[in-house]
From TrEMBL:
<dbReference type="InterPro" id="IPR036291">
    <property type="entry name" value="NAD(P)-bd_dom_sf"/>
</dbReference>
<protein>
    <submittedName>
        <fullName>CoA-binding protein</fullName>
    </submittedName>
</protein>
<dbReference type="InterPro" id="IPR013815">
    <property type="entry name" value="ATP_grasp_subdomain_1"/>
</dbReference>
<dbReference type="InterPro" id="IPR001763">
    <property type="entry name" value="Rhodanese-like_dom"/>
</dbReference>
<keyword id="KW-0614">Plasmid</keyword>
<comment type="similarity">
    <text>In the N-terminal section; belongs to the acetate CoA ligase alpha subunit family.</text>
</comment>
<dbReference type="InterPro" id="IPR051538">
    <property type="entry name" value="Acyl-CoA_Synth/Transferase"/>
</dbReference>
<dbReference type="InterPro" id="IPR016102">
    <property type="entry name" value="Succinyl-CoA_synth-like"/>
</dbReference>
<dbReference type="InterPro" id="IPR043938">
    <property type="entry name" value="Ligase_CoA_dom"/>
</dbReference>
<dbReference type="GO" id="GO:0043758">
    <property type="term" value="F:acetate-CoA ligase (ADP-forming) activity"/>
</dbReference>
<dbReference type="GO" id="GO:0005524">
    <property type="term" value="F:ATP binding"/>
</dbReference>
<feature type="domain" description="Rhodanese">
    <location>
        <begin position="499"/>
        <end position="545"/>
    </location>
</feature>
<dbReference type="InterPro" id="IPR032875">
    <property type="entry name" value="Succ_CoA_lig_flav_dom"/>
</dbReference>
<dbReference type="Pfam" id="PF19045">
    <property type="entry name" value="Ligase_CoA_2"/>
</dbReference>
<keyword id="KW-0547">Nucleotide-binding</keyword>
<dbReference type="Pfam" id="PF13607">
    <property type="entry name" value="Succ_CoA_lig"/>
</dbReference>
<keyword id="KW-0436">Ligase</keyword>
Amino acid sequence: MMNTTQSLAGTAEPARSALDCLLRPRSIAIVGASPQFAKVNGRPLKHLIEKGYTGRIYPVNPKYPEIAGLACYPDVVALPEAPDLAIVALPARDVEACIAALGRRGVAAAVIFSSGFGEMGAEGKQIEQSLRACADAHGVLICGPNCLGFVNAFDNVYATFSQYADGDTGAGPVAFVTQSGAFGTAIAALVRQRGLGLGYFINTGNEAGVTFSDLMLAVIEDPRIRVAAGYMEGMRDGPGLVRLAQRCAELGKPLVLTKVGRMAAGVRAAASHTGSLAVEDDVFDAVLRQHGVLRARNEEQMLDMLEALCSDRVPQGGGLGIVTQSGGAGVMMADRAEELGLEVPPLAPQTQVALAKVMPAFGAAGNPVDVTGQFVANPDLLLESVVTLLADPQVHVGIVWLQLMAAHVDLLVRIFCQIRDRTDKPFIICWVAAPPEAVRRLRAEGMVVFGAGERAVEAAAALVRHRQTLRVAAEQRAERAALAAAVERVAAETRGNSFCDGVQSTVQATGWLHAAGVPMAPVTLVRHGDEAVAAWRTAGGPVVLKIESPDITHKTEIGGVLLKLNDEAAVRQGFATLMQRAAVARPEAQLDGVIVQPMAAGQLELVIGVQRDPGFGMVLMVGLGGVLVEVLKDVVFRQAPFSEAEGLRMLDELRMRALLDGVRGQPAVDRGALAALLSRLSVWAAAMAPWLDELDLNPVLVGPTGPVGVDCVMVFRGQKAG
């Protein structure tokens, strides 16, 4: 609902969005306000007054004629105007009637502190659904219920009872949105300790109205915000989260998320390997990475990333240069850098010559550069070493490691300021057991300071990944229209078709995939021994026989596959053997016959699959291992559709990707052909989203002539064309 306000001069202003009224209100009503400022319903008024909110404030409570010198109104109807925002601090039983009254009064938005809704179980969920319907019917945008509210520090809006508002809340470049009230408050307090400053602090509560993504999308548009951070406990809106990530990339603003439940095995019973491997958090992590989101393991890593990303310097590549007092610390950081995909490059000859001129004879002028403790006697040693290292064309971000040095704070602060002024490349200071005064002064100078080497390396990796995100996001924007058009072409071809639920026949599934550009080995369904022999003769060489049944999707588990049959007797006997084995192992199964297929060759086995994820829709998986895929668990996921370039990035994320380059004399596989297969399959899967539930290609054999799928399980569920 749009809410038209009038300026003080009486001139009509353009209508404002409900989200703008929520986050940047010009007037606020506090329904259930209390003169006792220590209470939940008294704290918002306290903060608004003490923090200098300049808009109009309307306490609402029939018990009081005035509160803190402000007129207090008996009910919403009595308000002298329709405020932009209402803070609702009432018992749960009174909230829905309040929202209806606010809507009738023309209030655009409300933040609801009250608990007793969906978090209380089935009955609470019903109450919350009724509240949502009421808010929608009356045109009130709600934040909450069961939330701490929010802070807009830029405009001194304190629609919250959070303890975070009790301290200094100076506005800064970080927007923080959290699904947890208490833990989110703790993170906000830690941000404050780092001196970073939150421009926005928002707790979403139960998200009966605006969601995590809605609120973050709104605040990242503020030009004063440079970095977005979020804490999530669950994901209610996958498409919204993807839109948020894409918009952050368009704006060039990093998005850092921490989500709990990393090890939750949310695995549903599935007919394919793909379904059993698609642990909810694995898919979440992969889709975030696909769209450039930086994921932090915990609150401390989030803060480290934020501190680094708030810097206005962006690395132009992935080369890390290290200067250290300790050779051991340099080795440790170099090891961690390699684990994270950073390069610690050899220094250019001219850099080594320049370093040799300033280094002590017992120092090390490689990368890492070990300046020893000699720089205390000769400050220019540290200064010139770091500046020279950062000037190397293969070094894009630096780390300077030192320890203790409590007696030399003034000297070191001066040196680091000189380094900052003589280079335009980002660098991170790792000062172990640093004097607190040193950390405070360096951060005041806009420098990034950590107390442990691995933390510094991980922050440097976040800087590099953000730079890569901007490049990849630009490619993805250019590809988006073409992918959408490709999906629409495939979807148009399927309109008017009717599909049956359940496991699809191998012949039909193979035909659909082949038409979509996915290389598939030819298959023939036979129902007796003579047909099997005829199919073998047509193949002209060795064949594989596989039992065909919609009830037997893992054929090898019942001995339902026979390989390398190449004479009439073997083929005829093979057919009988498979039918007998299936009848014994699964007497209730529907047996449609046997698939005859020419033997395919390949030096490497992959598994490629698709599943319908409840949050992100169609998700594609590629992995190494064939029948061992569930043991090796070397798999990568992506949201469909995606380009061939994204397919190449998927292959690069496999742990055993070196196998693709050939080992023990085997030739390298054609990565381009594999990426093309992945992209085409992702387009087809996106177009088939109304019907496709699961797809498993296992194995996909990769040989000199490219990849070919030799076994397929395809499952449709629940919808028909129309």
